[in-house]
Amino acid sequence: MVQLYNLHPFGSQRVVPCRQEPARFCCGRDVLFVAGTAASCRVEVFALREQGRCDALGSFATLGPVLRMAHSQAGDYLVTIEEKSKATYLRAYMNWRCMSAGSSRVCVRMVGHKMEESYSETLKEQMSVVEMPLSDPPLCVSCCPVNGDLLVGCKNKLVMFCLKYLFINQNLTVLDFERSLILHFDNVIPTEVAFCARHIAVTTELDVLILKLELVQQNEGPSTRTLQLELDEFVVCQKPVELLGEESKLCEIPITLESTDLPTEDTKCFQVRYLLFRRFTPDQSPFGFCEETKLHSVQLLPVYQTGSSVTDHEETENKRELLSLFCFFSLPHVGYVYSVGKLVELISTYQYSEKSEQAVLTPQFLHVITSENLQCFTVRCSAAAARDEDPYIDTTIKACPPIALDVCALRMQLFIGPRAICHFKNHIILLTKADMEDITERRKPTRRMLSRKDDCIKSRANSESEPGWNLYIINTVSTIQLYREMVDYSRTYENVKTESCIHLLSEAHLLVRAAIMDPHFLNSDEKEELLRVFRESCAALGDCYSRFDTEDYHLALPYYRMSGLSMAEVLKRLVSEGDEIQTYERGFLFYLTHCLNEDVNEELSKESANQVLQIFYLADPAQLPHILCSPCMRNVCPLRAVKYLQKVEKIMPSVVLTLTKAFMALKTGDLAMYEHEMDSYKETVLACGFIGQPKLLRHYKEEIVVPTEFAVHLKEMQPGLLVAATVALHENSKMELEEADTFFKILCSNSEHAVPQLLVDFWEALLVVCSQEETLQELLLRLTSQYVWRISKQQFPETKPLRTTEDLINSCNHFGLIFPWVTSIMSVESPSDKSYHEDISKLQSLLCSQSINIASALPVLEPLTEAGNVGLTIHVICNTRLGKYEEAIDQLLKRCPDAVVLYAQHELKDNNRAVWWNKLLPELFKRTRLTGNDCPVLISSLKETLSVVAVELELSDFLSLLPEDGTAAFFLPHLLHCSQRKLLT
């Protein structure tokens, strides 16, 4: 469907002062080439200036009448297909600009001809004509806009010439071509070809085939088997058909590649990938059977990466990064635009009101000529390219009008006898040829919208001899001017046709977006103005999706964000002052809700915040508790907020609403109301209530977590609830571990490295409920580190811990019962140890459990190596957990022998039982012998050990352990014990 508007994309026009009747023309970088009709055999060159001014640069002769012509921006050369003596020739005109300086020297050479040194000085002062012989007559030609390579269509084949830069000397580089590749077809006579970035579009009268040449590894090489389909794979397409992507291989057009390069290390090998095949039939027309149903105007349109630098020099020109590629072709009454870059798909279909003669596609418009009209249609290339550049553009952050948006005709401008058209920057070049009766009509006064300049009219003062043709340069108006007109036009639909208003504003937005994606944008004088207009268009679309009840109401959010408008500015645009019965559409509420729920660094004024409160109370009261917790609403009137919350509570009570009322009561200083609200639920329910709205406790400022006044109050009055709520947030993925660290450090006004007791309380509480192993080990290490730091630095916690060691042991498996031998060691504790008893016992409890990874905890425990009995317990626990029992026994015998037997009784069991007689007994023998009777503890331990060993070992094994110098009296009781055990068994 094509929507029709009556806008003015065309500005003033000028007539090109051609000396002869034009037959062919094309545009270069800043020039217009015009080839005359058969009798002239010349090409006139005109410089295109601002506002469509046109100055003659000169002319040069051709071999014969020009049948086809094209200009390449890369290399700045003109290629022609010319006819002479019923033969056709392919010629390229290089260095043609020298003729405008008055030089008439011309050098004609064959392609690949080696430049002689004698010509080197004169080459830069003369035009060079390169003739490219072909085995078959050339039918059509196309230049690649990216690299300047040339593609020639002949019967049953396409020939590719690569543009080469030949370095003659420091001051002279000469252009030449090298025939590098031939694509052979079966039964294909191309009528038109288009070539861009190794993409090829070729049309016959009713077929379109789009291909891509892909580089392959040299060792693979192009094989006929991979490039030519087997006959039994073909699907003979006798009806209209469209084959996209991989399916297009099923067409009946096999291709064989023939490389004509001389093989070198840099030789490129190609294979063909089919992208699109479409076949039409003569009767495929909405206007019924038409004998002249033929394809025309095939074109490949490149769109480059935004921000790609562009200059006029060939070397930097090739650095532009291709983003998207589009292909246009047309039947007499229907035109098609396909995306053929990353994805092959039909973008738009254009229905013409009458038979078209020719069309040209630009990033902003499609211009079509019919028998008496120049028509301008919108295009969707910028919408598709924007999505290629940013696949995530359709989010809550960014948006772009859809590709499937209906196209529209902006203008149908009357002309007499349009015949051919081409496009250059913001100019349209239009050739008109009128019959004699049309000329007679033209002499009568007309209401032509476009005016011919007086200086051009005077050159044809003799109306009797006025020819029946004109070559016009029509200025298209600036993007900004047309944008303004489209916005003004859209206002006529605001209260009548919502979708038409949005559609026209979307067209205006795409128009500006296409201008910004133009490679010349960075160097444009209108750059800042275009960016400003782009933001303005986003704001206008945001207004539409906010004001109107549309299915796509959610787009208000990304468009407003792209506009750069603040929330306060949006409110001013949409909310009437003092209007309490104003209705608010879904898009506006969606925008406000998202902005308020996200941490936007914008603090609304008291008036604006109260406006927002009023809006949600009327439109969506369920959102009030969440809206009031937003940092943007800091200045809202708390008394008014409580009043509204009380009304909502009667209908929709909730824990979050109660907490929000308590929050507002704190802001007003009404502690009685605060306590009343907080007493409405049990503490566990209140803790879970914070999950429903974490912003009651914290929000963000420049991505840094900031505690609220509510959190500050809870820290002083109900620290247990604050810790429980924070644990609930963490366990429900509403607060990360690192975020909680920052939260408590800021809340307790601690330095960046100091750990407040409330954070330790949080870690301990989280350890009780934590189930993730990675988080569990992190918490165990953090707690261990903090306990060690306090013990080693003799640092008291600044607040009383919420849980004792006994509480943690009873509620958490990760805190274990402290071993009896540890208690024994600690019974002989120093006075300083008593001051940190709670931290010491918590640390010992953690190490006595089976949860902590002792190996990873060793570096953290290092500061306690010399910390008296505490350090000893840590050493022995760690060695025991690591299976180093003998080292543990050595440490105990050296520093606390009283506990060695208790340790052995607790630890040396089962598989470790042999340590009793292999390690402990020999060590006691040795130490007792050295000390004699001066150490009763050792003697007592030895007796206990002998009692255990005597029970465990055979008599002979026990005797072998006894020292040779021992007295029998000492060992007799144990020997007797062994003998009795033997008799019993």
UniProtKB/TrEMBL annotation:
The residues covered by the BLOC-2 complex member HPS3 N-terminal domain are 3-461
Per the record, what is one GO cellular component? BLOC-2 complex
Q: Which Pfam families match?
A: HPS3_C, HPS3_N
Where would I find the BLOC-2 complex member HPS3 C-terminal domain in this sequence?
481-982
Protein name according to UniProt: HPS3 biogenesis of lysosomal organelles complex 2 subunit 1
Record organism: Falco tinnunculus
